[in-house]
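Design a sequence for this backbone.
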């Protein structure tokens, strides 16, 4: 402990993880297992587990544990291990600021602390886009929720949000809530998606819509909200190739509830405050193959880095970040010179990491820009083919991972990932 910044003491810690969801838990566990004896996790909620606590459906853990678990069950596996390793957690704690020299200011139940970290792992997750973010015109009645807020009300608070619902956006949370509301006795009139394809996983289209006879209308959006005290209905219209509504197709759909499943935004206010370079496509930090940002000692993982479709990949990625953060504080650095840039090419929306050392094995995570069938993901360096993966089906909703050995990129000045 020292006394910088006036009379408020600064507490020195080795690894500090911000966020107690699946990414934060996995990162903290990995840092401890990598030999770091001083790991602190900071969580703003009163319990650990993050968004998993309200995800009572199954399908989690198929890759990590080889079985289908509910969200709380999956979280409990990591929380139990976290407790067994006796890692310290500060719950109900808000991080007020983060500086480039890893000074963290926090508030816990009216108290204020300053913490100086040897390494910081950003694992704050993401938030939903709201009605204001997509500028739906109309009145402001009750009955309009983000899909995640409705999920929280129903699964954690036992509050039914409506009886006759429509859903805008076919993201996974919206699809899962279509099924959830149906099972609770509500009528789900339809799901409307502005894109020409669903933005959710194909398995959720089948299990949450098709199995319950809920229609999905593509190339369609909400053009207005109608109602005074309570939502009375919505106006919807088909859209053209420019995604602008076609006026003559507009119609009114009666409903008392509208759920918005229109995308997720990484929670990166602290990241930007620390001066971390951001990727405009993912909305997350730019990292190398150790998950370290351009600010030495600050790492990022999970949905705060890029939005995932499977929690298993979040945990695996966060485990790597935790291991490298422990290495950073133990050895003064985990970094190797990252001289090989990685960039998305034709048909690829983004790649992560953005640069690699070529001195260790690594994974490239990516999303394609549009749906395709019977195509290959190819990693190239100039005219040299480094790796190729054949896929019967490619979809923007599904993240793709390509494992690369360091030997395969030896001598490569750069890497480009394309769809062929």
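Sequence:
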């Amino acid at each position: 402990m020292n006394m910088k910044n006036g009379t408020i003491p600064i507490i020195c810690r080795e690894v500090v993880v911000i966020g107690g969801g699946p990414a934060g838990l996995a990162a903290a566990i990995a840092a401890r297992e990598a030999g770091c004896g001083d790991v602190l996790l900071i969580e703003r909620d009163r319990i650990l587990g993050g968004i998993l606590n309200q995800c009572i459906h199954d399908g989690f853990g198929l890759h990590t544990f080889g079985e289908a678990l509910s969200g709380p069950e999956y979280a409990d596996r990591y929380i139990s291990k976290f407790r067994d390793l006796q890692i310290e957690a500060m719950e109900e704690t808000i991080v007020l600021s983060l500086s480039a020299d890893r000074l963290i200011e926090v508030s816990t139940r009216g108290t204020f602390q300053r913490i100086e970290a040897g390494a910081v792992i950003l694992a704050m997750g993401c938030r939903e886009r709201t009605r204001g973010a997509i500028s739906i015109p109309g009145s402001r009645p009750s009955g309009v929720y983000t899909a995640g807020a409705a999920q929280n009300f129903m699964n954690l608070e036992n509050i039914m949000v409506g009886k006759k619902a429509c859903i805008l956006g076919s993201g996974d949370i919206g699809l899962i809530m279509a099924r959830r509301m149906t099972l609770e006795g509500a009528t789900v009139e339809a799901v409307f998606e502005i894109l020409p394809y669903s933005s959710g996983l194909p398995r959720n289209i089948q299990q949450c819509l098709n199995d319950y006879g809920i229609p999905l209308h593509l190339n369609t959006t909400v053009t207005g909200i109608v109602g005074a005290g309570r939502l009375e209905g919505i106006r919807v219209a088909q859209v053209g190739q420019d995604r602008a509504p076609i006026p003559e197709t507009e119609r009114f759909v009666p409903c008392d509830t509208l759920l918005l499943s229109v995308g997720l935004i990484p929670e990166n206010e602290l990241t930007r405050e620390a001066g971390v370079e951001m990727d405009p496509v993912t909305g997350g930090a730019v990292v190398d193959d150790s998950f370290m940002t351009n600010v030495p000692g600050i790492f990022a993982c999970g949905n705060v880095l890029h939005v995932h479709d499977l929690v298993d990949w979040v945990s695996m990625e966060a485990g790597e970040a935790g291991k490298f953060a422990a290495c950073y504080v133990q050895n003064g650095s985990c970094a190797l010179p990252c001289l090989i840039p990685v960039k998305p090419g034709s048909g690829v929306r983004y790649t992560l990491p953005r640069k690699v050392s070529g001195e260790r094995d690594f994974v490239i995570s990516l999303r394609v820009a549009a749906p395709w069938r019977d195509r290959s993901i190819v990693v190239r360096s100039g005219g040299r083919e480094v790796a190729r993966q054949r896929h019967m089906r490619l979809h923007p909703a599904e993240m793709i991972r390509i494992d690369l050995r360091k030997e395969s990129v030896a001598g490569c000045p750069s890497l480009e990932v394309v769809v062929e």
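The longest helix spans residues 311-331.
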